[in-house]
Amino acid sequence: SLNYFGLFAWSFGLKDSVWLTFRFSEEEVKVQCGEDATLPCRAPRPDSVDGLEWRRTDLDQYVYLYRDGEPDLTKQHQDYRGRCKLKDGTTNLLLHNVTRADSGLYECRFLIRNPYVHERPIFKKVLVTVVRLWVETGEINLLKGSGLKPKWCIKRQGFEPVGRVPLNRFITCLP
């Protein structure tokens, strides 16, 4: 993983600025299909910033948004509804029951509100963590006479249901 420290300055005029220190990191997480994944974020605690946003780089909608002291699920991507939350008061994202479709590049950003604009809040987003999630399907072994019955079966002539079979794939069986 790559880690470096940064200093973020947001200027609101000649005199007024907000200075924050943060640590940027790149992480890699590997989990098995069906398990829960914890995506680490090096942002400050959720209650110490104005908000926190988790995004996947190939999606338009966010994965998880926390602002004004609570989750904001109004524009959450449908594939993540009911499957994710912040873990134990941290900025780490807990993603339940992962599938291969969850594999990808995730970004954690914290949000800072401009303290000098009150009518319509303006947020600045600061990228602090990039996580590559790998969801592995694993493999099982099927043996003749084992009594294991596949969930799906395609009947084909000349193939036996013996050998290494990837999970979440169709299994070739004897007629």
Number of helices: 0
Q: Structural class given helices, strands, pairing?
A: mainly beta
Q: How many angstroms separate the termini?
A: 49 Å
Please report which band the strand proportion falls in: under 5%, 5-15%, 15-25%, 25-35%, 35-45% or over 45%: over 45%
Biggest sheet features: 7 strands, mixed
Q: Please trace the helix and strand order, writing H or E for each element.
A: EEEEEEEEEEEEEE
Q: Regions with pLDDT < 50 over 5+ consecutive residues?
A: 1-17, 140-144, 150-175
Rg value: 22 Å
Arithmetic mean pLDDT: 71
Total number of β-strand segments?
Answer: 14
Q: How would you describe the shape? A: elongated
Q: Largest beta sheet: what is the strand line-up?
A: 1-2-10-9-4-5-6
* Portion in helices: under 10%
Organism: Neogobius melanostomus
InterPro entries: Ig-like_dom, Ig-like_dom_sf, Ig-like_fold, Ig_sub, Ig_V-set, IgSF_BTN/MOG
GO molecular function, one term: signaling receptor binding
Keywords: Immunoglobulin domain, Membrane
Provide structural commentary.
By secondary structure, this protein is mostly beta strands. Helices cover 0% and strands 49% of the residues. The chain contains no helices and 14 strands. It has a 7-stranded mixed β-sheet with strand order 1-2-10-9-4-5-6, with no helix packed on it. Strands 3-8-7 form a 3-stranded antiparallel β-sheet, with no helix packed on it. Strand 1 and strand 2 form a beta hairpin. The N terminus and C terminus are likely disordered. Its main location: membrane. InterPro entries: Ig-like_dom (IPR007110), Ig-like_dom_sf (IPR036179), Ig-like_fold (IPR013783), Ig_sub (IPR003599), Ig_V-set (IPR013106), IgSF_BTN/MOG (IPR050504). This is Ig-like domain-containing protein.
